[in-house]
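assembly run, all chains below
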Amino acid sequence: MLQVNVLRQNPEWVKERLAVRHFKNAGLVEEIIALDDDRKKLQAEFDNTQSKINSASKEIGKLMAQGKKEEVEQMKQDVAANKAQTTALTEKMNATEKALQEKLIQLPNLPSALVPPGKTPEDNVVVRSGGDDVKLPEGALPHWDLIKKYDLIDFETGAKITGSGFPLFKGKGAKLQRALIQYFLDYNTAAGYTEYIPPFMVNEASAYGTGQLPDKEGQMYHATEDNFYLIPTAEVPVTNIYRDTILKESDLPLKMTAWSPCFRREAGSFGKDVRGLNRVHQFEKVEIIQMVKPETSYEAFEQMVHHVERLVQSLGLPYRILKLCGGDMGFTSALTFDFEIYSAAQEKWLEVSSVSNFESFQANRLKCRFKDTSGKTQLVHSLNGSSLALPRIMAGILENNQTETGISIPLVLQKYFGAASI
RNA sequence: GGUGAGGUGGAUGAGUGGCUGAAAUCAGCAGUUUGCUAAACUGCCGUACGGGUUAAACUGUACCGAGGGUUCGAAUCCCUCCCUCACCGCCA
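ok done. output:
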């Protein structure tokens, strides 16, 4: 959520930034400022009236002590009149605030100056690419066939147990998954990230805090009996650790990593790209998150991008890094780099990570602030990224490392997997 | 799930209707003293939204788990909900 003050200070600049996203409803900016003006006026009025009530009440207390009954009765009537006024004002204020909030929440984050123009994924800019060229053997298979061939994941039984998109990992498939998770976490903690295993369900307040609610309601699984949501990413519970907190400047930067299963309903995505591990309802992911001082967030962003890049490199996968254009960026992000690995067997790029700087957008909603050295309270900047999403990484490893005799395991994973090949 | 006890500022903890935005202690910050450390002493030390100011000072309002209610006046009384702790039941 953007801060109203930012809109007030520079509405034209805000609109320019929104245009980079091709955000249509720029009129919201003025509407919000107008509502905020109303809010201020109402509050001033309310405060005045309430102040009268408060002083009258104190006076009444004193008069009561002196036993001056008649005067007290007179004052009570005055207070009653004022009170009727505050009740009316409160109602107006609540309505105004609600309208303000509703509009404010519709504004996406402002793209940073680094964001390239453009509307669709085709307009994303390749920052760099790397990794080994892959030479696949004759008759190379896509991962869904390899999975069958080596009996690594049983999609059919997963569908029987739960439904389609709930893979059942099995034998070496399960072990490879575990090896990857372990490797990723070790890699992250070695870089100074504190490891967490968060709750996998969150309450409404948390889902709201990271922006899943109110608008992405349909994308989460919802346990209605208890009003909990299954997390779509570890970002939700981990970021909410710092909901409603005021940190010390010396606490920053905070670096966290967490493994978790991720549950996504993926309502509305049919047909294309859903084969095998390309798109599932339950998958696992290791996430990295940072909360930093505003002036260092782009430094932290670079750091995170390099961190993820080295991780992808270590697996020997061909990859590219995309700088998302204004039109393709997520609602809450100010700058996003996507990581894609190349699946030679599918002849397709698969997204395996997305690193974003939210600047203060998420922190504002979350109310995560810190006290700077001059004693002023300000919002932190938050960032996150995957390191990495498991299914597509596994798909990539299986496809790109297949040989006539089996699948070779990347060197860095061998000590976790316990073998050099499948 | 049952029963009981609780939820107050960074922490401990007082406060059962007006003098309490909140005692006291600890931690923290600034300073004085001291050869250093330590100790002692003095001051400061919640958040949000307004007004005010170059910035402060100053000032209004709200907030004592959340939401309602009673009252001229609520941290304090009443109702609902949430959470924590203890014991019992069930259970990985």
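DSSP finds 13 helices and 16 strands in chain A.

The domain at 4-104 of chain A is CATH 1.10.287.40 (Helix Hairpins).

not gonna interpret more than that til we talk
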